[in-house]
Amino acid sequence: MLRLFWLLFFGFLSEFIWAQPQKLYFDQAYATGAPQSAVFDEVNYIPLETNRESVFGRINQLIVTHKYFIIWDTDTDAIYFFDKEGKFLKKLSDKRNTIKSIQLDKNKNALLIVQLSKSYLPSQKQIQSALDNPLKNSALKYYKSFYYDLNDINAAKTSPIKNLDFIMANPIILNSKYWAFSYIYANKGWDDITDYELKVSDGNKIVQSFFPYSRQKSSIFYGSPQKISFYNTLNPSYLLFTRPFNYSIYKFSMDTLIEAYQVVFPMANTLPNSFFTQNFESRKAFEDYKQKNSGFVWGLDNIVEFKNLLFFSIDTWRSFNERNFILNKTTNQFLNYNKISADSSNYFLPPTGYRVQYFDENYLYSSVPSSSMFQSYESSKTRNVQYTPTLKVFFEKAKQTDNPVIIQIKPKTK
Questions:
Q1: DSSP string, 68-111
Q2: What is the pTM of this model?
Q3: Chain centroid to CA 99: how far?
Q4: What's the rounded Cα separation, in Å, for the pair 389 and 106?
Q5: Long-range contacts of 194-203 (CB under 8 A, 24+ apart)
Q6: Is the pLDDT of residue 156 over 60?
Q7: What is the mean pLDDT of the chain?
Q8: Residue 2 and residue 250: Cα distance in Å, rounded?
Q9: Contact status, residue 199 vs residue 206, Cβ threshold 8 Å
């Protein structure tokens, strides 16, 4: 009977961590650009209405539903609703609280909003205490969380979430019952106990934990807090995530955790084994190491899996134009996302924003400042470009200081 138990136990674990990943051999020096018409089937531009109430600085986060563009702008500390044609509908702001995060819960058709009180700000010590034991040190006196119903945004129907103690750890919705979160930190003054990079909670207790590390001896996390980054997919049953100082992309649901992809970099860009055993005495020592080794890739982020395309960014000290890439999994070709160039089929306008900000079943979404649109417009005046009616009105009536323009992109997937 005991033998049967262990066979079942290890069979269960194998589903979580022992699947072989697809290896992606990548050298950024060989990731080329291309004309946008060779990469995209459609590039559409949707100017966002600008008036006294709707004007904002930049799109910190974009959420796209079947009815709305939802924009969180940190400069104005507000959430803006526009329809899919770019018409302004509503602004949410709160003088007593500042917005900390927003998430779309598709099952509820609601926006999860987390706010931090402006009148009762936690000290750094209180923040650290709450993060060290997120289920034991309540952060509810600083934060409030609620769902904002999207079925009728003008009704402003909200539903508070109670007892979400670990909200300071930025949990992400895993499904209707569970949350995933990550906070990775080591301190030589703590007891040498095992903590975990990835945790799943039902709101009251930890139900699953993955990737153990020592809270006292893991020097790469000493004085430099890190976290796992989570990414939604078109399949609501699972998430993708990446880990700090790791080149793998993982697929995760309540009953599955697999290493889906492993990016293999040239040796000159790969963190050496000695990095993981080096004794960093302080955050400054760690930052000094990074400066002296600026050619290393420190991790992966901005993951988007869209049909046969995989979008990803590398954490490096290089410029933005050398960080964002696309893998065509059908052809095994890598492209530099920021070197995709304009051509006549997109009116010689910017074909991409600096990264993909959202995606749905049909399109990718990004954005560019209005000033960038006008710069391209001015440089193309000798080309006699025939703009769409929407763009024609935009260039006739808008200003360079107007709201950003949404870019809606349909990639080629064959």
A1: EEEEEETTTTEEEEEETTS-EEEEE--TTEEEEEEEEETTTTEE
A2: 0.90
A3: 17
A4: 33
A5: 197/228, 197/243, 198/228, 198/241, 198/252, 200/174, 200/254, 201/135, 201/166, 201/171, 202/177, 202/178, 203/163, 203/164, 203/165, 203/179
A6: yes
A7: 89
A8: 32
A9: yes
Neighbours of 324 (CB within 10 A): 23
Confirm if 366 and 326 have CB atoms less than 8 A apart.
Answer: no
d(CA 187, CA 222): 5
Q: Which residues contact 381 (CB under 8 A, 6 or more apart)?
A: none
pLDDT per residue over 239-253, tens digit each?
Answer: 999 999 999 999 999
* Bridge-based pairing state of the strands 300-306 and 309-314: antiparallel
Q: How many CA atoms lie within 13 A of 261 on its CB side?
A: 22
Helices and strands per DSSP (H, E), number in the chain:
7, 26
Q: What is the Cα–Cα distance from 72 to 62, expressed in whole angstroms? A: 7
pLDDT band at 163 (very low <50, low <70, confident <90, very high): low
Q: Mapped to the 3 state alphabet, what secondary structure does 160-188 carry?
A: ECCCCHHHHHCCEECCCCCEEECCECECC
| 257 in Cβ contact with 210 (< 8 Å) | yes
Contact by Cβ (8 Å): 265, 27 = yes
Asked whether the beta carbons of 160 and 144 are under 8 A apart, the reply is: yes
DSSP state of 48: P
Q: What is the mean pLDDT of residues 209-234?
A: 90
DSSP state of 54: T
Is residue 372 within a helix (H) or strand (E), and if so which, with residue range? helix 370-379
Give the burial class of 229: count Cβ atoms within 10 A of its Cβ; 0-12 exposed, 13-18 middle, 19 or more buried.
middle
Is the distance from CB of 178 to CB of 105 less than 8 angstroms? no
pLDDT tens digits, residue range 272-300? 999 998 888 888 888 899 889 988 999 99
